[in-house]
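COURSE: Structural Biology Practicum
ASSIGNMENT: Worksheet 4, Part C
STUDENT ID: 0417
INSTRUCTIONS: Below are two proteins. For each, the amino acid sequence is given first, followed by its structure token string. Answer the questions at the end about the second protein only.

PROTEIN I
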Amino acid sequence: MSSGAGIDIASVARVTALLDRRPEVRGRIYTDAEGRDCDGHPQRWATRWAAKEAVRKLCGAAGVPLPAYRDIEVVIAVGGAPSVRLHGRSSRLHLSLSHEGDLAIAVVTGSAAPATFAEVPAGLRLADRPEDAHKGTFGTVVVVGGAVGFSGAPLMSALAAARGGAGRVRLCVPQAMYTAVAAQTLEVMAHPLPDADGGLAAAALVPLQERHLAGASAVVVGPGLGRAAGTERLVLDLLPQLTAPTVVDADALNIAAAHHLDWRSCDQPVVLTPHPAEMGRLCGLATADVQSRRRRMAIDFATDNGVVVVLKGSDTVVAAPDGRVHVSDVRVVALATGGSGDVLSGLLAAFLAQGLDVFDAAVAAVFVHAEAALGVQDVRGRAGGLPRDLLDELPAAQERTRRVLEERRSP
């Protein structure tokens, strides 16, 4: 969206009189930090009032929904330069404040459209995308999953890996569902494996290792996998013999939990992506116990088992075995639907395939996944968005994030 401008002039005397007459207005208009900064300085109350009105005028002229007054915060840097922050999203706005006598003046310029819908976490990384790259530059993701009646989960995971920038994506599914899956995508290479009881058979291990995993840069195990006896045997045999960084999700987590798998027996870095109930099974605890101490549970499990944990849900926690931890503050109700986690697993594997550190890949995937969901929510609302909508938003969410990171690096 093109840049615009918003200008507002406020009377110091009128703003001061209003706040003295109705003190409750302060809490509706100003943030706590602004209140502390303005206390005892009447002109500051007025300049910040004008700044908030100027931002809303710019947004209105651009056709962007008007932010609440408290979501617009004026921040003064150490050197005295003012800037404007829109809570809940980053922005590309520039602010100038002035006052003379009774008049306070604010001028806001820039784009009313957010650079991203959410604030990009400090330290977040995405892999480079050099112009001379080829498909081999960005790695190969192999997704292992699926059972009769659960074809959507592995397919969405594989498509998310493709939308996440992986150079090549292979999807390995039971023979019984191969035709249905292969017919739904042109970009992902689907492969049939031996099956039994509607799921993958234990005999699938050898062709999986010899034909597909040998060239993998990252692997996803678990979406829609089911709990057939042969499938359980396959998972328990496969995980200790991994040849690439692997995302373990869904039924693969449940199988590992039921058999008390020793995660330190895995030969490659592993990322676990449980929702609270799956985390409870891994730890032998009730879901409510997990939810009551989410951060501590993720950190302890990661440290004790030598894995990266992505504990999904509101305030998703990413914990590494070396003590690094990240808690996402992006809450998106549009993600509260079946299949969203499958998209996350594929996206995470794509970032691993492109060479990111395991913890960095997890943090980046959690953010870009939420950023894409905010894009869906912006268009479709808070209910009714589908995981397939997330897939379509992933490229734009990455590009928004990448541009913010590039701006941060520029002098």
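PROTEIN II
(use this one for the questions)
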Amino acid sequence: MEYSNDRDFKYVLQDASHVYLGGRMTFQEMMDWEDVPFKLKAIVNKYFLEQEVDADSLAGAFKVMDKKTFTYQICKQLRIKIKAGFYTVKVNRKGEEEKIYKSKTYSLDEYLALLSEGAEPITEEVSLSKLALLAFSV
């Protein structure tokens, strides 16, 4: 599914405890943007780009991720959470169908379970713990 304004999903934000990445950021964009913490760039370079993960973004990597892989263990170590949404159809009081969008933040395991069930969520945001990033050795 192609989105009309992909830039809405490409950003890097930080607060005191987390780093938030737009769900459509590619690995190359993460490497190029100076707002992405250097340690995260080192992790992406070493474990995603050098390992030649069959995806060009974190959101894409989740779609092909297997719980037996080392990249899964890295994502668990970083305490990654994924904010994703779905469009649902609801019938209103007038009997008309309405398209409603709902989003929720999922743990990595919950998100992978959704994907394994055949769901196609729209990945809005990926967040990771700064404390986990600090504790991660590269």
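ANSWER KEY EXCERPT:
Q1: The chain is about 35% helix and 30% strand.
Q2: Helices lie at 27-32, 38-49, 58-63, 70-77, 108-116, 130-135.
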